[in-house]
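can u pls check wat happens w/ dTDP-4-keto-6-deoxyglucose
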Amino acid sequence: MYLRKLKNDDAINMLEWMHDVDVVENLHSEFLSKKIEDCLCFIKNSMTKNNVNFAISSDTDEYMGTVSLKNIDRINKTAEFAIVVRKSAMGCGYSRFGMQEIIKYAFEKLNLNSIYWCVSKNNKRACRFYEKNHFKELYDVDESILKQYDDTTDLKWFIVNKGDIVFNSIPTLFDGVSLINIKTIGTSGAGQLSFFESTRDVPFNIKRLYYISRVPEGKRRGFHAHKALKQILFCPFGQIIIILDNGEKREEIILNDPSIGLLIDGVIWREMLWIQSDSVLCVAASDYFNPEDYIRDYDEFIHYVKNK
Ligand code: T46
């Protein structure tokens, strides 16, 4: 599958979904009365300064749906996203692919910073899709955006910001280490708020919080493992590489997104490398500070994991 410019040959398949009640029932605009001329006119005007519309195409060049960026605002670096696919394309990965590609296009080609969109709360399938793929809900939507909709009461808004990890692209590292999504609520033009709750969002009772700050670029800390402590590491500001070692292999993960947490709940040697000065490393821990829980010697760590 690939994205390409819309062409006149797509009109017939475009009209197909417009007349498919199952596809359009939860869409905001009225499509059932559209004619082939409307599709041709849409295709003709599909690439303008403020709106771009691409065909999501099958490998055999068949039109499967349209993915769009509307109301492109180059000053505030935002745009509204929209997607629709034919019934035959549902559940086949076209929506996911179309979305992934247009997000890339928005951030890399158009240099935008955030993309927002809305769906009807009744569109359970779409809501599930966005939630499952870790898109953030958007509250306090700008008046200028809302006024384009006659009725906003049944709408649920979402946002994706440049740098967000979405589409479950989170790697599974190794036993005892995983990445988690920290619930994050975006506020249009006013940042975002992230939170997690003890035992509900993290698999342990949080007994201690600590944070490491004012570390110069290029400095390493850590060089130890814990015997029993479980922790969530997160970086609300800056960029820190976490080097993880389970005694057999080493992995590195960069923390640079406030909505991503690194869960370490195994006996893992860790080093933290500051690649941006003043980055802040925050840690939620399952227990009070206990120097006895640390293994600070690498050979002792290897011996410990081998004889566990
Ligand atoms: C970890 C990584 C990610 C305390 O007195 N109370 C505390 O809660 C902590 C965490 C540390 N300390 C003392 C112990 C040392 O005298 O603070 C000093 C610096 O600690 P440390 O050299 O262990 O710091 P890091 O950055 O190497 O490691 C810390 C945590 O200690 C560790 O649990 O997993 O961050």
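The CA atoms of residues 70 and 80 lie 5 Å apart.
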